[in-house]
Amino acid sequence: MGNSFGKLFRITTYGESHGQAIGVVIDGCPAGLEIDQETIQHQLDRRKPGQSRITTQRKESDEFQIVSGIFEGKSTGTPISMIIWNKDARSKDYSHIAEKFRPSHADFTYQEKYGIRDYRGGGRSSARETAARVAAGAIAMQLLKEHNIGISSYVSQVGSLKLELPYQQLDLNAIEDNIVRCPHRETAEAMIELIETTRKQGDSIGGVITGVLTGVPAGLGEPVFEKLHAQLGGAMLGINAVKGFEYGSGFEGVSMKGSQHNDEFERQGDRIVTKTNYSGGIQGGISNGQDIYFRVAFKPVATIMKDQQSIDQKGAPTVVKGRGRHDPCVVPRAVPIVDAMAALVLADSLLLNKSIRL
Amino acid sequence: MGNSFGKLFRITTYGESHGQAIGVVIDGCPAGLEIDQETIQHQLDRRKPGQSRITTQRKESDEFQIVSGIFEGKSTGTPISMIIWNKDARSKDYSHIAEKFRPSHADFTYQEKYGIRDYRGGGRSSARETAARVAAGAIAMQLLKEHNIGISSYVSQVGSLKLELPYQQLDLNAIEDNIVRCPHRETAEAMIELIETTRKQGDSIGGVITGVLTGVPAGLGEPVFEKLHAQLGGAMLGINAVKGFEYGSGFEGVSMKGSQHNDEFERQGDRIVTKTNYSGGIQGGISNGQDIYFRVAFKPVATIMKDQQSIDQKGAPTVVKGRGRHDPCVVPRAVPIVDAMAALVLADSLLLNKSIRL
Amino acid sequence: MGNSFGKLFRITTYGESHGQAIGVVIDGCPAGLEIDQETIQHQLDRRKPGQSRITTQRKESDEFQIVSGIFEGKSTGTPISMIIWNKDARSKDYSHIAEKFRPSHADFTYQEKYGIRDYRGGGRSSARETAARVAAGAIAMQLLKEHNIGISSYVSQVGSLKLELPYQQLDLNAIEDNIVRCPHRETAEAMIELIETTRKQGDSIGGVITGVLTGVPAGLGEPVFEKLHAQLGGAMLGINAVKGFEYGSGFEGVSMKGSQHNDEFERQGDRIVTKTNYSGGIQGGISNGQDIYFRVAFKPVATIMKDQQSIDQKGAPTVVKGRGRHDPCVVPRAVPIVDAMAALVLADSLLLNKSIRL
Amino acid sequence: MGNSFGKLFRITTYGESHGQAIGVVIDGCPAGLEIDQETIQHQLDRRKPGQSRITTQRKESDEFQIVSGIFEGKSTGTPISMIIWNKDARSKDYSHIAEKFRPSHADFTYQEKYGIRDYRGGGRSSARETAARVAAGAIAMQLLKEHNIGISSYVSQVGSLKLELPYQQLDLNAIEDNIVRCPHRETAEAMIELIETTRKQGDSIGGVITGVLTGVPAGLGEPVFEKLHAQLGGAMLGINAVKGFEYGSGFEGVSMKGSQHNDEFERQGDRIVTKTNYSGGIQGGISNGQDIYFRVAFKPVATIMKDQQSIDQKGAPTVVKGRGRHDPCVVPRAVPIVDAMAALVLADSLLLNKSIRL
User: In A238, B57, C2, C101, which residue has its Cα 20 to 30 A from A91's Cα atom?
Assistant: First the structure.
């Protein structure tokens, strides 16, 4: 279980890292949406391996095939199925860890849970699965675009190197201007250097992605358990390697007084807006029409080119060392995944919201 | 929508702050569980208002009534319905804000979403709803106890006053020893003083709760979208006033190298354990048998005894000032809510896990 | 599990026949719906025991209490909770069968499934639970009324006494004109006599209810697994004592040729209609704008005032004989239940349909 | 929506009749199940077109490709994805009805619902979709086999030609002995002749399939809304062309007295059994350990080789006549579909039942 996401705009993904393919089925995409396949490929390209010198050098073209649900360029309301065939699946790279539990990977826990696991490249636990989400998210984005909702995620921290400027002071159109996907050039350059240094050490490092959602109308999100930020948080925490989520003032807001933190209302023409936005665009779990922003923490990639103590499936001590081609830092390629998960949450919320009033 | 939580151990809550009652229905509690009603009342008492000088002075006995699902002291497998009747519902306290949007409350967003709202005490958006979760969580805890799973949450930060000791160096049996629910006496005293000072200023302040789950067997959690930590995070973010969630190394782990962060495996007798636990007891979204620990950030309470600029329902400028009886800091009373949500997630995961192998 | 119904207009029921109360929570009723409490009570009265000489003489006023979700007479979009307290719960009537499995009741299967059961009056398996559905259904009906959708169910067969006239030739406003709820006076009188004779024999008898749904717009129902008739059928089969469901031409349609059975399209003014309606208003699982009609088969009530061979919980042979106050034929009181389940299906389909197009 | 089925053993199907492929994703198949691919192909072959002279002569090999979820011959607990590529998709056969609404097809209702439709061969509404369910059902069957549960469906009626013998007097191993899948040779021959005659007339005819489930343990099925027979009924009504479902005594049971219909309990060795089985193996919605049996009514196929009056998309009168290659009677090929849906319901119930007791 656990391979589906969303209630009305609902996706189900499948596939293993080194199996035949990964794929996704979207059930609930509204009919009549023009589907731009280039947008889908563009998002996949942003996530694909081998895209720059700071990502894994594994090569996957990550071309997708639409199998159903689109007719004469438009969604028909029936399930949209997309497949991405695995091409550069060098399973032999993994035979050396078939019987070993790699530290901080999912080898041990999958074995404990299921009593069986596809050890090739982490099987289902590999972040390769996220390509399927990115493809589905790209369709959700097209739905959101019809409602003038925008999604901009960017790398705001690598290791302890943190971009201190708030998103409002950045040019969010510059995210793709560099390979680390940080819209502040100087910081981006330092981040790239840090990642390269780390890679040369055979090591890995963590990072933070900041997400900004603009144009979200007031009223999205459901009370109590499905608050909009609870859905966003659950979605982000479902991305591989994520260790934390905060929105609006987040953990820093803890130290504030209510009198500082409260966002007073005022009018701007016809609209009711807030003077500040510590709420992060969500109050009581429902969007208030202001920008939604959040931060997602990613741990350092578990695969490193160093010897590590571990245990094998028979319980004997062993040594594990990464081979193959891995990312020293996951955040540059995780930006489109954060975008996709945000798009899926918003698309679902948007559809749910249609049934909420008489 | 959004008022249900869980897949197999599934709860649905209802009720408004100043309506007749709040309540919960649990569908899926296994049959044959002995239900200790004192445990339920104990958890409700930990959450109830008026329990100490640092909480709201509103009086609610929060006694619960079991309406169904329990026969001769045991669960029967049919829905367990529990009701908590509202007693001290002074609706008049709220008439002054019937037409005003209180800053950083849910007044505006509920109005925008539904076009109608029960303004009395925040209606459905009030944290009073969490009493229903606490009652349900207390039953989940009894199920977990049968599996020797323990849950201990405590206040680890109030404002910028932070308990730096990790949970391993604390006596988690001392959580109830003081009214702020911080198991470190000196820190607790400072926290209490800070909360009292804040209250006297008519202001409010945020805080952090740390949760520790012990005895969780390896194998809980579902891959991809329903990772155990994604479920925990989504659950915590669904609690009123929560702004962030992190588990294991969390946001701090971002700055670490993989070689530091990876948790090497070793044997301890029959068990495979990890030498460190930056993973926070979860790898690939599935529990690994180590302690699970996480932090939950709460913003300062929105209701303060100070004048604030706002807008009324007709769009005219107005001033809002809190009256009534409110908590200056939410975390002491939120500890049993965090416990409850953690219990609900684990109970559900435990049941789901029964179907996972042939 | 299994105590919830619907996806967007979702109800959860709870309560046992001789427990404290039965109740229902509706999550997803759109905000702004004026709730007429008399309509709810009217539907409950149609289902309540003791209403006529051909039903059980047990007395339950079946008054309901609204606990949440309605403010100033309108739904607020938050969960609507309704409770019906059990008043005439003579548990002692059932002590004689506490350890016995009544033939064709759920005693044995509940015991096998759960290892424990509330034997008083059948506990959760009692048809008393359906009062909760009727209350919820009455709210769904008010939503449907806003869309000019009508629901008329009536008794079309008791034992082998069958009303042969199709619904088009009946006055559906006459359903409440007699106690058996058959709109054809002569047939109704014969049915009443048959039921009374059966009751005097200490026996019971089955029946059929025909449902007619008018004004349903084209487009309701979801493809493949959630066809509108599959949802209606599943809903009806979930009513106690139901053994069969057919819609449109049903089982008789089997003997027809395609050339007879196909419903040709024609225009009537602006509308596209069908000349015949063997399809029963649903084609490919989606409503086509014509009347929807169906038949629901109810078995004879299992409780009879005769000696029957059985087994007790220890496995020893025993004799069971009904006591207490029971219906000799379930269909007169089941009419409002069929109405309610139909209303719940349509309300849910109507809401789901809002998200289906761009 | 509506393209998923099941709660724990959950399938999602996709694909159109004349698109690239149809497929299915199973989420929740327990890990460690040996998957026999021949069984899957065997079930697909039973459903495939062109298998005999009484089915459509369209040729589809219906070979399936497993894309994920199986490793070294066993299920891994991750989603199992299977694809069946469309090969003999002669879309040109359908161009003549692109703008016309075929009577009693889903053309009109899809157009009304979605505002767009893939008209080629009925698109998503085509029974071709059921191949995906058959593939998934074949895996469910392998799970059931581990629990010694058997499923046997057969054709019991074609037109008004009805096999009057109950299933107990038939040799259920003889179902595959003839092309109509009726285990009674003389009746089968008459059915075949009737179907052939009908086909020569360019017409179609309906039929009934009887399903028999053996070895189902007591305790399956959930109370109230998800009674085992409600799930079976909903599943069967979700199959194309189905108009009715009854189980146990069904519609005929209506005419019985309770004293005749009640199934008295008795002991047979260690087991508690019923002397009769009018209940059809289910009491109170939960299996009682006896055989489960039911009947499913199929209407005559809508596509016939005769002129029929209709309307085109612009609202103008038109004439429709079937071309292409169609089944004159759907039941012979529907037997494996009934088997598959029954298997999916039972597999899901079996998994759900694991969480029901402490």
Answer: A238
Which residue matches tokens 């106050």? Answer: C325
Percentage, residues of chain A above pLDDT 90: 91
CATH fold group of domain C4-354: Chorismate synthase, AroC fold (3.60.150)
Residue spans of the domains in chain C: they are 4-354
Cβ-based contacts of D254 with chain C (< 8 Å): 157, 159-160, 206-208, 243, 297-299
Against chain A, the chains showing at least 3 CB pairs within 8 Å are: B, C, D
Indicate whether B113 pLDDT > 60: yes
Instruction: Report d(CA C163, CA D17) in Å as an integer.
Output: 42
- Name the residue among C254, C262, C298 with its Cβ closest to that of D157: C254
Burial class (CB in 10 A: 0-12, 13-18, 19+), A297: buried
Burial of C309 (0-12, 13-18, 19+ CB in 10 A): middle
**D59 has a pLDDT exceeding 90:** no
H-run or E-run covering B193: helix B185-200
CB within 8 Å of chain A, chain B residues 165-194: none
pLDDT reported for residue A169: 98
Show the CA angle centred on residue B169, arms to residues B163 and B172, nearest 5°.
85
pLDDT category at B130 given cuts 50, 70, 90 is: very high
Two tokens, residue A6: 């969303």
Mapping DSSP onto H, E and C, the string for C119-188 reads: CHHHHHHCHHHHHHHHHHHHHHHHHHHCCCCEEEEEEEEECCEECCCCHHHCCHHHHHHCCCCCCCHHHH
Say how far apart CA D317 and CA D296 lie, in whole Å: 35
Residues of B within 8 A of D356 (CB-CB) are 30-31, 77
Q: How far apart are CA D300 and CA C252, in angstroms?
A: 11
* Lowest mean per-residue pLDDT among A279-288, C45-54, D186-195: C45-54
Give the Cα separation of A201 and C247 in Å (integer).
Answer: 71
Kindly state whether A146 is in contact with chain B, defined as any CB-CB distance less than 8 angstroms.
no
Confidence band, pLDDT 50/70/90 cuts, at residue D263: very high
Task: Flag whether pLDDT at B95 surpasses 80.
Answer: no
Q: Which of B279, B286, B297 sits opposite A250 (nearest CB)?
A: B297
pLDDT surpasses 70 at A93 = no
Nearest-Cα distance to chain A for C146, in Å, is 9
DSSP C305: S
A-contacting residues in C 22-51 (Cβ below 8 Å): 28, 30-33
- pLDDT at residue D247 greater than cutoff 90: yes
Q: Which of C103, C205, C282 sits opposite D265 (nearest CB)?
A: C103
Question: Which ipTM score applies to this complex?
Answer: 0.97
pLDDT, one tens digit per residue, over B159-174 is 999 999 999 999 999 9
- Choose among A131, A134, A128: nearest CA to A17: A128
| pLDDT tens digits, one per residue of A181-236 | 999 999 999 999 999 999 999 999 999 999 999 999 999 999 999 999 999 999 99
What's the mean pLDDT when you consider all of chain A?
95
CA–CA distance, D31 with B353 (Å, rounded to integer): 11
Q: Provide the token pair at B85.
A: 């009747």
Q: Is it the case that residue C92 has pLDDT exceeding 70?
A: no
Provide the mean pLDDT of chain B.
95
| Average pLDDT value over all residues in chain D | 95
Classify burial at D268, counting beta carbons within 10 Å of its beta carbon; exposed 0-12, middle 13-18, buried 19 or more.
Answer: exposed
Give the count of beta carbons closer than 10 Å to the beta carbon of residue A217. Answer: 15
Q: Does B354 touch chain D if contact means CB atoms closer than 8 Å?
A: yes
Give the whole-angstrom CA distance, residue A352 versus residue A206. Answer: 35
User: For residue D270, what are its two tokens?
Assistant: 């260690």
Residue with tokens 């891994």, as numbered in its chain? D76
Q: Which pTM does this prediction carry?
A: 0.98
